[in-house]
Specification:
Elements: E1 9-13, E2 17-20, H1 21-33, E3 37-42, E4 47-52, E5 55-61, E6 64-65, E7 76-79, H2 83-89, H3 93-104, E8 109-112, H4 116-121, E9 129-130, H5 137-142, E10 146-147, E11 152-155, E12 162-165, H6 171-185
Helix pairs in contact: 1-6
Length: 189
């Protein structure tokens, strides 16, 4: 990857604790390697405590609080997984509204593992086809979405393009697809 994203700003939405480290760092590096500008947004400023499944891993500096960020300043959004991350993030009204505004503005999104819980909370999966960690299948179906078991799923049936994947093993396909989609479909911020 060289400069496919040509300076596009990509918001990474996480809670302050519980994000799956690989699902944060691999897409982050893919965006950076492609010439994009990733920014970490969380409910509070300070740091994000990442996890490797249930064990604490690295800490990452927050660029700004979600409530202090304008979705229209970004070209795309990535929502990493992690059970605790997604469970907390869906209770943060500013995060739900941020995702809704990204979708409404037609900007692409990439969401992995438990991340779709934020989309379910924001009523953003209705009539969409996506994948996730398997335990979210019922939640997605109950919210009007179509769940599939796939390494990576691209859904263009909606206001924006939505890239989803199931788990850390899917990261190579997820990262490749999100860079391709972000390059093709990002609108000016």
């Amino acid at each position: 990857m060289a400069n496919e994203l040509n300076g596009l700003r990509v918001a990474f939405l996480t809670s302050n604790e519980g994000v799956e480290q690989a699902e944060l760092t691999a897409p982050w590096q893919a965006v950076k390697d492609a010439g994009g500008v990733p920014e970490l947004l969380a409910p509070s400023t300070g740091e994000v405590q990442a996890f490797n499944h249930l064990d604490k891993a690295g800490k990452f500096p927050v660029h700004r609080a979600i409530r202090d960020s304008d979705p229209l300043d970004y070209n795309a959004i990535v929502v990493p997984g992690g059970v605790a991350n997604a469970d907390v993030l869906r209770t943060v009204n500013a995060a739900v509204m941020f995702a809704q505004r990204i979708f409404e503005s037609g900007k692409p999104a990439a969401v992995i593992c438990h991340g779709p819980w934020l989309l379910v909370e924001g009523d953003l999966v209705r009539a969409r086809t996506l994948t996730s960690w398997p335990s979210l299948a019922t939640d997605i179906r109950n919210a009007g979405g179509n769940w599939v078991d796939a390494e990576v799923q691209l859904c263009t049936n909606g206001p924006n393009s939505l890239v989803t994947s199931r788990k850390p093993d899917d990261l190579p396909a997820f990262c490749s697809t999100l860079v391709d989609v972000f390059q093709r479909e990002s609108q000016p911020a």
